[in-house]
Amino acid sequence: MLKVNNLQKSYGDVRAVDGVTFEIAEGGVFGLLGPNGAGKTTTIHIVAQVIRPDSGSVTVDGLELGRNGSRVKGLIGFVPQELAIYHDLTARENLAMFGKVLS
């Protein structure tokens, strides 16, 4: 269902993700563990298409992110750890705004 192959991402001289590879079968359970700064959040952000990798590939249900980004977004869900809302917008306006940004 999810294949991550040789994922890499750097921020300047800091390599946040260095050759991460894993596969999760449909219905599988997977834990991404590591100390602070190991690249867990960056990896998740790449899979969720929040940021782009420098290299490597991500495939969801046979669809590669780079070529099928909008179709893949319909297959995955992402809930950030931090509450990300705009207090001057209503709940409906927040949902509509984030729906437009992420689609």
Briefly note the structural class of the backbone. Answer: alpha+beta
Domain module tally: 1
What's the mean pLDDT score? 86
| Structural shape | globular
H and E order: EEHEEHH
Order of strands, main sheet, comes to 2-1-3-4
Radius of gyration: 15 Å
Low-confidence segments, given as residue ranges, are none
Range of helix content = 25-40%
Instruction: Please describe the biggest sheet, giving its number of strands, its sense, and whether it closes into a barrel.
Output: 4 strands, antiparallel
What is the architecture at the second tier of CATH? 3-Layer(aba) Sandwich
Concise overview:
28% of the residues lie in helices and 28% in strands. By secondary structure, the protein is α+β, with helices and mostly antiparallel strands. Strands 2-1-3-4 form a four-stranded antiparallel sheet.
Please describe what this structure looks like:
- By secondary structure, the protein is of the alpha+beta class.
- The chain has a single domain, classed as Rossmann fold (3-Layer(aba) Sandwich), CATH 3.40.50.
- The chain has helices at 40-47, 65-73, 91-102, and strands spanning 2-11, 14-24, 55-60, 63-64.
- The protein has a four-stranded antiparallel β-sheet with strand order 2-1-3-4.
- The mean pLDDT is 86.
